[in-house]
Amino acid sequence: MLRDRTLRLHYGSRMEAVCVLGTQISADVYGAAPAGAVSFSVKHTAGVQVEVVTDDQSQVAPANGGKQWPLDHRTILKLSMNKASTEANDDKVTVNYYGENGGPPIDQAGVFLTGIGISLDVDADRDGVVEKNNPRKGTWTWGPDGHGAILLVNCDKDNPFISGLDCDDEKIFSKEDLRDMSRMILRTEGPPRLPAGYEMVLYVPMSDSDKVGVFYVENPFFGQRYIHVLGRRKLYHVVKYTGGSAELEFFVEGLCFPDDTFPGLVSINISLLESLTEEIPRAPIFTDTVVFRVAPWIMTPNTLAPVNVFVCSVKDNYLFLKEVKSLVSKANCNLKVCYGYMNRGDRWMQGPDFGYVTREPLFEVVTSLDSFGNLEVSPPVTVNGKAYPLGRILIGSSFPTSAGRRMTKVVRDFLYAQQVQSPVELYSDWLTVGHVDEFVTFVPLPDKKQFRMLMASTLACYKLFREKQKEGHGEATMFKGYSGTDTKRVTINKVLSNELMVQENQYVQRCIDWNRDILKKELGLTEKDIIDLPALFKIDKMGKAMAYFPNMVNMIVLSRDLGIPKPFGPIIEGDCCLEAHVRSLLEPLGLMCSFIDDISSYHKMLGEVHCGTNVHRKPFSFKWWHVIP
């Protein structure tokens, strides 16, 4: 804020000035003195407070002008008002100058003052109320004791009849659109009209103009209209002064998320401009500033309760849809099917009418690691005393010493810039598709840890198969009931005797173990927090690994109900031994396992249940602004 300005008085004349409540005007009494003056007195109306300041010494000037001070070049007057004027120029300050011989004043100078209250207000204490003139509204801090207003990126589409996102246009079509915005109120009080030569301007810095949009509520009581006044091409807006005690309501929307070039903070200012003459441009004599932080892009982990499950309907996944519907019904949440007219044949497209963000690299090559099976998030964790109450983002990358595939820099930079879910980079380039959801997921539990991490394990699979072989089930056959396969009869004995497959899966296990060590370190886990699910892989012609049978770790988690890819494992006494083993690991923990056949509709296309679904979950109860990055 500009809270102090200098006014140059002129003897023999009276000036006019506006004094904004809560600010001070410095008046130069020495420079305004006539020749021969050696002392002065000050007389003022009751609405003005006057201090006589010489160096660090300050005295309050009585209203009746009964005290004189020696004239000194170091002396200034500090003028302030704490009550708004009812009429322009209804308060005044008069300075009388005296010569050496005393007697009546030899001349005088003065100023007529108009007191005006101006406060640009936001919800700086984050309680849902736009309080008046919060002293901390112009700054922003993290943590449970922090402060500062919050702004959402308005990146959904509340009106189904428009083609773009809500933040792409400069219009408000519905009340739902307003709910995505933050309120800002300009409170003013003063005379019916501003004195001549003054105006109020609302503005944003050039650097913030493409990051925030502001709408003004016109005719708030009769047929409301929302006028776009700031953002993108609009840097300022002249605010109409209405007189008396008034509140002008604005709605503010975020236009983009934090990124490597944008820390997330935006400021909006209101200035009172003054013009001394028509020939000289107006200059600000008072500025009030509010600061918003744009809410970060936040992922929701499997430990949060599901609300809606999204899945696409395509020509070959009818049975898959039927099984997912059954699972969703058990989990007591809603199924949202994206039909062909919406998904346009893309079975991986998930979730209509949802806010989204895109990042496009200028020069980097986009790979499958930029798909969002390669973007997961852990449950909340504490690591060496450092809390991550919203969990940590997990992304797949290449081995540190290799020049393999990596998520593009623009996406990685975006994820790191959100600050509240500090990313962990894993090694996933060893996989054909290269996604972290091919070897790790999380399930909720009601114990102190509140979750377990599930990892694909070739070691666990070979251990199970050897146990079954020793029990006399070496000829148990895999892939029974799997229609459309050209696979020859595969038994436990054949799998265990295939030396090339053994060596390939030893390599895969080393890759998984590398990630296991990273996850234990970065998530603060121990071995008892990890459950190994049997898996086997085969190496393709490019030396990358793909699942040999449906990869059970690539599941959908709906609270205690798990939708697990049906593995079509060896059948022993009428049951799939892989399914039975997984049930024995998870169901004693209170989890319910449903095995879903996704072979023809997803597995053959190198995806599984998790890849073909998306879950809208209840948000964190923890407030993201309480995070200390």
What percentage of residues falls in helices of 4 or more residues? 10-25%
* Rg computed from alpha carbons, rounded to a whole number of angstroms: 35 Å
Question: How many individual helices?
Answer: 8
Average pLDDT, to the nearest integer? 89
Terminal CA distance reads 28 Å
User: Number of DSSP strands?
Assistant: 39
Q: Poorly predicted ranges (pLDDT <50, ≥5 residues)?
A: none
Structural class: mainly beta
| Outline | elongated
Strand content: 25-35%
Catalytic activity: L-arginyl-[protein] + H2O = L-citrullyl-[protein] + NH4(+)
Function: Catalyzes the deimination of arginine residues of proteins.
Subcellular location: Cytoplasm
Main location: cytoplasm
Can you put this structure into words, describing what you see?
The chain has 629 residues and is mainly beta. A hairpin with a 6-residue loop joins strand 14 and strand 15 (225-230). The radius of gyration is 35 Å and the shape is elongated. The two termini are 28 Å apart. This is Protein-arginine deiminase type-2. Residues 116-274 form the Protein-arginine deiminase (PAD) central domain.
